């Protein structure tokens, strides 16, 4: 599926805007960015083969549950990878859902959830 970078960014912004209020209100010190695809360093950092092309997103930071009252740092990052996400999709509807699901998954890591604890 082909979606321009600008349109993909808009879909990510909409997914952020549609987060439940109680969820978005407790996001702290975090930024969401879009990159075309994961770097070799990103893949190796999560234990994947550098030839892997299915990493959809990545959380980089210190989960809220691991922070103390003196925590101070640059913002955590959620990275969504445009090309791998779109490679799974055959329609705009699928792209919207995959962006939302990936965003929620990575934000779950921000709150300290492991992959097995995610709500879906």
Task: Write up what this structure looks like.
- The structure is a single chain.
- The protein is an alpha+beta fold and about 120 residues long.
- The chain has a single domain (about 5-115), classed as Zincin-like.
- Helices cover about 40% and strands about 15% of the residues.
- It contains 5 helices and 3 strands.
- Strands 1-3-2 form a 3-stranded mixed sheet.
- α1 packs across α5.
- It is globular.
- It starts with a helix and ends in a 10-residue tail after the last helix.
- The model has no long low-confidence stretch (mean pLDDT about 90).
Instruction: Provide the β-strand percentage band.
Output: 5-15%
CATH topology: Zincin-like
Q: Uncertain runs with pLDDT below 50, 5 residues or more?
A: none
Main beta sheet strand tally, sense and closure: 3 strands, mixed
| Assigned CATH architecture | 2-Layer Sandwich
Radius of gyration: 14 Å
Mean pLDDT: 88
Please give the domain count: 1
Look at the helices and sheets and give the structural class.
alpha+beta
What helical percentage do the residues reach? 40-55%
Number of helices: 5
How many beta-strand elements? 3
State the order of secondary-structure elements, H for helix, E for strand: HHEHEEHH
Distance between the termini: 24 Å
CATH class categorisation: Alpha Beta
CA-based shape: globular
- Widest sheet: strand ordering: 1-3-2
